Amino acid sequence: MLRWLRNSFLTGIVVVTPVAVTGWLIVTFVNFVDSTIKPLIPARYNPESYLPFALPGMGLLIAILSLTLLGALAANIFGRTLLGFGERVVNSVPLVRNIYGGLKQIVETVFSGGQQSFKEVVLVEYPMKGSYAVAFVSSFAKGQIRSHVGQGEEVIGVFVPTTPNPTSGFLLFVPRSKALPLEMSVEEAAKLIISFGLVTPEHLPPGSIPGGPLKKGPVSETEGAGSSPTA
Question: Does the keyword section mention Transmembrane (predicted)?
């Protein structure tokens, strides 16, 4: 009976925890956006000024509509002209242009969904010989980096994320032959990293993890002769 109660309690925790954490994150995000956007709305245009109760999510809705309107405005000729003028002004400031240019490139890469996004998961020998880290292929090296690292071989840029925060990490350039490909999607690898390795993909190709178990083939006569049965 005690074992059944313990197992039922642990099962309830496993079922409830993801739902509760997800709900808490959603409520926290909505409240944060509401507390940021609502003070910017004039009282005469704020529906809560005429209602005896608050409207949860109104700030988030206004933010979505504002971003959509801004995107539509930036897509036409007037918006592109105004945006280009603003970027020229920003690029004239020495320190600000570096920060703006880097952030713009990162955001465009993340939301583009094109060829610049992470498409492949590999294992690289890091941070020391004999230990391996999960990495994402981000680019292909060219110029001096390829000539110094690859010496005629293809060189790839890999992003090695940290655990449990995959948004930070290290950029490494390694020869293609030193990166071991994994039959794993980017989402599966992200789950593996965020969960401290507790959530592992169900399928891994034989031999993809160095030193891991390989599929045993038929034992040859030479190998069988030198082996002895174990108890």
Answer: yes
